[in-house]
Amino acid sequence: MRHGSLRLRLLLAGAVSILLALALSAAGLVLLFERHVERRIDQELSVHLDQLIAGLDRPGGGALDVARPPGDPRFALPLSGLYWRVEQEGLVLRSRSLWDGDLALPPDDPADGELHRHAAEAPDGARLLALERRISLPERLGGGTARVAVALDRAEIDAAVRAFAFDLVPYLAVLALFLLAAAFAQVSVGLSPLKAVRDGLAAIRSGDRRRLGDAFPDEIRPLAGEFDGLIAAREAQVASARARAGDLAHGLRTPLQVLAGDVERLRTHGESEIAGEIETVATAMRRHVERELVRARIASGRAAADLSVGARPADVARSVVAVVARTPAGSRLDWRIDIPPLASLRIDPDDLAEALGNLAENAARHARSRVAFTLEAEPGAGMAALVLRDDGPGMARERIAELVARGGRLDLVGSGAAGTRAESGRPGPGTGSGAGLGLAIVTDIAEAWGGRLSIGNSDEGEASGLEVRLHLPCAGAG
């Protein structure tokens, strides 16, 4: 199951939270504005109510009347939305704005002078906000009590609230964009330690670092510590496996030496056929032991992870040639080394000697007269190719294509650089010499140091024949 991007999930959660928060804020602000407008309307209506009460009179000693109505002209405009009403013992006085209608006030019995707030209905059905006060009339106004009310159409309040909400939308949109940008920055900053962990692990894989360290925030430091602990445990396991493989390989060497002695005794007694078969098996076992020793050495994790290691291929090639040239096959050849003396490759000198030794032994078996070592730079890749060419019969093109198709895994090829050369009419080095482990060893070494092995036929110069390239990083290349 794919869980998707943590960054995307955090951003989506932040965006949803921001939008919900802004929606609630907008609703709260609109509600607060509505309450504020209502309070202002209450104050305005209270002023009109006081003016209405102050304008009550009995002109000429007659019936109660509003001698001085409130000054707002809307009271004189029919159905204007602003109304007043006075009721005193069956007498009802109304503003001209009510026309021939009346205010539908709810039944109420407020205390004398107490201000009550009502939701009322206008003659045209509009919703009204009404303020009412019951007052005791003085003797000059005939005594008794009167209900005085002033009302305003709520449409004005609703219109003001809508206008405020529309004005608020652009500001909330700008605020939303700002908060989303801030959330993106927060997520990016918050996840940056995880990127540092990823980069650190990549650096460990490439060999630039050996541990993540503890230069992380408190929340990430335990994770980095677990990674470092895992790496340390892995190194300990590899070291233990390396030691066991080495012990096993060294333990097999003594029985193989005994078998070699038995082979010589059998030949002495005329059992040459049996001695040859035993020697073939013993040689194969010896090559397996050698390969396991090489694997035990390069499997420690030191190889590609160690940038401080370097070998000068010119020196290593000379030391290898000095040994191979003393063998019967190598003594008849002209060995040429055309490698800059100060050139350096990122590989352990012993590993490079092991690889070149396998390639040189194979070349010695198949070359006619010459074997040449050269070094060619690979621009832009931080790599160089250590090239070994011989003037032997080469290899069939279909065989090379087959090896390339296998992805360079040459375990089934001969034990040296050339593999089984069908054109030569002679058995390849894999015959009777370790079941083709030489190239497998060279391949293992190259891959352990971040390189690779390639083979092909060459028609360049005097040493035309098979060409083997050992591609390795240059010393100092990251």
Q: How does this structure look, described?
A:
The chain is of the alpha+beta class and 478 residues long. It folds into three domains: 1-200, no CATH class; 221-298, Helix Hairpins, CATH 1.10.287; 313-473, Histidine kinase-like ATPase, C-terminal domain (Heat Shock Protein 90, 2-Layer Sandwich). It has helices spanning 6-54, 154-206, 221-268, 272-298, 313-324, 349-366, 397-405, 438-448, and strands at 56-57, 65-66, 82-88, 91-94, 115-121, 127-136, 145-153, 334-338, 370-378, 383-390, 452-458, 465-473. A five-stranded antiparallel β-sheet has the order 4-3-7-6-5. Helix 4 (272-298) runs parallel beside helix 8 (438-448). It is rod-shaped, with a radius of gyration of 50 Å. Residues 404-436 have low confidence and may be disordered.
- Total of DSSP H or I helical runs spanning 4+ residues: 8
Ranges with pLDDT <50 over ≥5 residues? 404-436
What's the alpha carbon Rg, rounded to whole Å?
Answer: 50 Å
- Order of H and E elements: HEEEEEEEHHHHEHEEHHEE
**Main beta-sheet strand count, sense and barrel state:** 5 strands, antiparallel
First-last Cα distance: 36 Å
Question: How much helicity do the residues have?
Answer: 40-55%
Multimeric state: single chain
Concise overview:
This protein has 478 residues and is α+β, with helices and mostly antiparallel strands. The protein has eight helices and twelve strands. The protein has a five-stranded antiparallel β-sheet. The protein has a five-stranded mixed β-sheet with strand order 8-9-10-12-11. Strands 1-2 form a two-stranded antiparallel sheet.
